[in-house]
């Protein structure tokens, strides 16, 4: 049973979780840092409680501050959102130890899937193909060089902990590898407190396709189809869509079915996402699992009509899933555009400032998940996501057309955003034609998109 | 310091009246002794009482002396405001965490002192100074704030009026069984508690007032011709904060 949820996150996802709580009739308390006192989530909440200063280490990343806030406000569950402590097994365990429900996989499950390298081996044992990569974590530079030679260049250096592109580098030569290892280690240490790395073979012109899974505590799981997140800039997703244009219906169904079979067999629970790379021949390779709600979950919601955050809460409360694979339908096509406070003209430098004017797009199939309001001050301390514009249509061309219209309608002044860049991107022939690969933006170059944007 | 422009603020003032005459040396000595006692004992105690009472103004009569302390209007309003602003649509929001402090009983200690000083009206206010840490309240007081989210426990035996030094532990906030100190932001006297023992508190929440000790009281004052008549004209209290 869950009656009152502490939302231990910020930005658009805090608002999203709050709405799911409300829809389920649950109380919703927002834990905020001093920098987020005026946030939309704090304003909408039944109750809002300041847990620490702007510095995330002392607020959104502080297990004791968050758990104490839940105790103090009489909550019986904590929703971690994404990022911050969302996949921290130690945090999940501490939450449970204080008699509270962690909205996510149990600590044991998070622990089992904590290491990407171990997870690859675990799921490979349950039938998922994986990308050729290093045997275990990299012990030292010598080990890395030897493993890279065995796998064959180019290789991708990846941190074992964390995600979001931090600490990741693609290298084509031994010389590049040697230089990048140091950088990746220090980035990984700074971001995740863990500098262990591993190597993966880099697939040229690959696409990023992921499968959404939903598994209750009783081992009953279904997949909610795939999402394509190939539009990335430096490993940061910019545009997501479902279904993927890279695979036909039969291949998509096979990928999703193999994914759900493997995670249920491996003992996964709650909602999660299995990420795959798909090469130009349509072969897929498992790369990692995300044990949390994901930024791009609305595209799946648009196709299935299933509220993923509500489902997450119900599973955490111990409810059985209540539906089977045959009950899940997939209608139409959806595209999500991540609106960020970044200046595309200046290396996507993060921006802060006060939103002076905000015009939110609407119309059939349009959803805008955002914490923005006119007068809101975008703080400089956290990630730059301002909102997610989701466009649904009965087919891909109509979804893209609606996305274009919505992007044209969206107006945010006072803070520089990437809106014009996204607008250029969804008009680009590679995107419209469904040929986007993860290296598109870096290959074509931001400048070319920007030039298109300035002409538009 | 937005309060600097407050027209209601008066500097330390011994109410020199037009037409006041110099006094003989013996009387002046007695005055000085009395003023010293006033500055050292009575005024600090009264300041603490004023802080603890939640009142905007306090006047004590003692023999021929009358001591009146008045908070600047804005400071008084600030003192009663919870640290987190109320949120629209947030019924029972974080302001739930802030309990109104109980009014302290009027301080009999100062009022029952034997009459030892001649008739005089004194109006005293502290000089504004920035406080090192805590929240500043119009210069004459600062407030100790919560270092964490948890339940507040005041230090036992520490009552309003007690002398404290900056950094002294005034109580703790219990965070999942681990105490985090609430410390005095300035040297001074413990003033009003803004939360009750056992109350849940959030990070940065105002916990207890500390009244500044370094009051400026001029050491020379005039004799007033007519006893027991308001010496200084009543100081305007903009905003009507006095209740």
Describe this structure in words.
The complex is a heterodimer of chains A (456) and B (243). Chain A has helices spanning 11-23, 40-44, 63-72, 89-97, 107-112, 116-125, 141-151, 174-192, 249-265, 297-304, 308-316, 396-409, 419-426, 429-432, 440-444, 446-455; strands at residues 4-7, 27-33, 47-52, 77-79, 101-102, 155-159, 169-171, 197-201, 207-215, 221-233, 236-242, 270-278, 284-290, 333-340, 342-343, 349-350, 353-354, 357-359, 366-370, 377-378, 385-393, 411-413. With 456 residues, chain A is α+β, with helices and mostly antiparallel strands. Chain A has three domains: 4-103, 3-Layer(aba) Sandwich (Rossmann fold), CATH 3.40.50.20; 132-201, ATP-grasp fold, A domain (Dna Ligase, domain 1); 207-455, D-amino Acid Aminotransferase, Chain A, domain 1 (2-Layer Sandwich). In chain A, helix 7 crosses helix 8 and helix 13 (419-426) packs across helix 16 (446-455). Chain B has three helices and twelve strands. Chain B has a five-stranded antiparallel sheet with strand order 4-5-12-10-7, with helices on one face. Chain B has a four-stranded antiparallel sheet with strand order 9-8-6-11, with no helix packed on it. In chain B, strands 1-2-3 form a three-stranded mixed sheet, covered by helices on one side. The longest helix of chain B is centred in the N-terminal third of the chain and has 29 residues, at 25-53. The radius of gyration of chain B is 19 Å and the shape is elongated. The interface between A and B is medium-sized, with 24 and 25 residues.
Write the topology of this structure.
The complex is a heterodimer of chains A (456) and B (243).
Chain A: E1 4-7, H1 11-23, E2 27-33, H2 40-44, E3 47-52, H3 63-72, E4 77-79, H4 89-97, E5 101-102, H5 107-112, H6 116-125, H7 141-151, E6 155-159, E7 169-171, H8 174-192, E8 197-201, E9 207-215, E10 221-233, E11 236-242, H9 249-265, E12 270-278, E13 284-290, H10 297-304, H11 308-316, E14 333-340, E15 342-343, E16 349-350, E17 353-354, E18 357-359, E19 366-370, E20 377-378, E21 385-393, H12 396-409, E22 411-413, H13 419-426, H14 429-432, H15 440-444, H16 446-455
Parallel strand pairs in A: 1-2, 1-4, 2-3, 4-5
Antiparallel strand pairs in A: 6-7, 6-8, 9-10, 9-12, 10-11, 11-14, 12-13, 14-21, 15-16, 17-20, 18-22, 19-21
Helix pairs in contact in A: 7-8, 12-13, 13-16
Chain B: H1 25-53, E1 57-62, E2 65-70, H2 73-79, H3 108-111, E3 120-124, E4 135-137, E5 141-145, E6 150-154, E7 163-164, E8 169-175, E9 178-183, E10 188-193, E11 200-201, E12 206-212
Parallel strand pairs in B: 2-3
Antiparallel strand pairs in B: 1-2, 4-5, 5-12, 6-8, 6-11, 7-10, 8-9, 10-12
